Amino acid sequence: MRVNEKCVGCGQCTAFCKQDAIVVKGNAYITDKCTNCGICAFYCPLKAIEAEK
Amino acid sequence: MKINVIGAGLGGLLSAASLAIEGHEIEVFERLPITGGRFTNIEYHGFSLSTGALHMIPHGSTGPLGNLLKKIGADVEIVPCEPMAMIRIPANGSNNYKSGFKDISFNQFGSQFSMWNRLKLAILLVTTRRWPPKNISFENWIRKYLNEDSAHKTANSFCGWALSLTNRDVPAEEAFEIFENLYRYGGTGIPMGGCKGVTDALVEIIRSNGGKIHTNTEVSRIIVENNTARGVIADGNKHYSDVVISNIGHPFTRDLYDSYTINNAYEEKIDNVKSSAGIKTCLAADEPLIGHNGILLTPYCRRVNGINEVTNTDPNLAPPGKHLVMAHQSVRQEKIDKLEEEIEIGLQDLKEVFPNKKYEVILTQSYYDGWPVNRASSGSDIGNTTPINSLYVVGDGAKGKGGIEVEGVALGVMNTLDIIKQQHR
């Protein structure tokens, strides 16, 4: 998954990530633990997470 | 009547629940998989953090939100904060907390002023309640009448906590309306179950009265005919209705319809809506850091405005034996591109506020622009109507005057319900 410029850092994604793969500090950062399951994107209020192209 | 609601945040749910119990046919459309918007819980490492708000209701069970919840029979218990707020002031007249501090009650505010300013404050409190000042910021009002550093700092920490604004950005008139409401309605409370306790109760009312809530369903258009809202298009399907209520703020609502006649005054108002930004830092602790359920205002921090510890009221918001502590700091618009630095300064502040205490940072959450603290900062609200008939806006982008955060949301919803009653008999 990839975080785009719409992210504000609200942290909603990290709470729903089952892999604990998102670090949030002013912005969300996807770590190596990400399995591309895509759950985070559903919960993002700003459409700020997209599947990697 | 058939009523469509766009967005299942607090304003949308309050409107939908109120109208559902009156027998109207309600459909709520929510883009996310969860209801509650920025007023619900997210579970994180065993703690019930929140999507936005700080598990508090500014005027407790007797304020606009508390009264509206009671009126519609929402099953929510709101526990009063006692004390409502304490102010942490440095020891020995210092300018920071490094060499010690003491906490004074919010009601004793002013006790640290000179004799003359204490007298003046008492007179000002009475006169400004009766004759609210106009066209002056809260900051300039304090400078003019009460030029005392601690007054500036306390006003800033209060405005930062309650509105996520600095006193420079709050009109004095709005600040005094808020103080007036503190007298009128009383102080803060904590909803049992946190924010989710409130929004889940509203969902329950909507469903048990036959209303429908569609999650994972995005509204792509508002159907407008003859300058009147006729329904919404969601996931490609048309849903007709007599009234459309939008909970997504004026600017996003405006983007959802085509208008053949441009209302310049409204467009200009939309452009002038300012959202407010903030950072919430969630801490976990084994021992209480604050020890009471009220707000700890921290005027002498560089960034942090105030902190609460809601587990003193509802221990279930944290794992057994743990405490959840939430600190809020407002963020000025020009600092938004330096958020990580702002978060760091806030974390340093917390070390000074809680010296020799053990705690862990669970999560830092920031809010601005499209997902802000308030879609319309206090004083920049533009009401609940739109140039389109039968289309109304509720939520924190359309609050009532003097309403802090969710209290303003409730005032705006009540106003909208009144308008709908008058317009659609």
Automatic annotation (TrEMBL), chain A:
Cross-referenced Pfam families: Fer4_21
The Gene Ontology terms for molecular function here are:
oxidoreductase activity
Question: Where's the 4Fe-4S ferredoxin-type domain?
Answer: 1-27, 31-53
Q: Which SUPFAM superfamilies match?
A: 4Fe-4S ferredoxins
InterPro entries, from UniProt? Answer: 4Fe4S_Fe-S-bd, 4Fe4S_Fe_S_CS
Q: Supply the name of the protein.
A: 4Fe-4S dicluster domain-containing protein
Q: Which organism is it from?
A: Methanohalophilus euhalobius
From TrEMBL, chain B:
- InterPro entries the UniProt entry points to: Amino_oxidase, FAD/NAD-bd_sf
Q: List, in alphabetical order, the Gene Ontology terms for molecular function in this entry.
A: oxidoreductase activity
The Amine oxidase domain, residue ranges: 10-399
By its UniProt entry, which PANTHER family does this protein fall under? PHYTOENE DESATURASE
What is the recorded name of this protein?
A: NAD(P)/FAD-dependent oxidoreductase
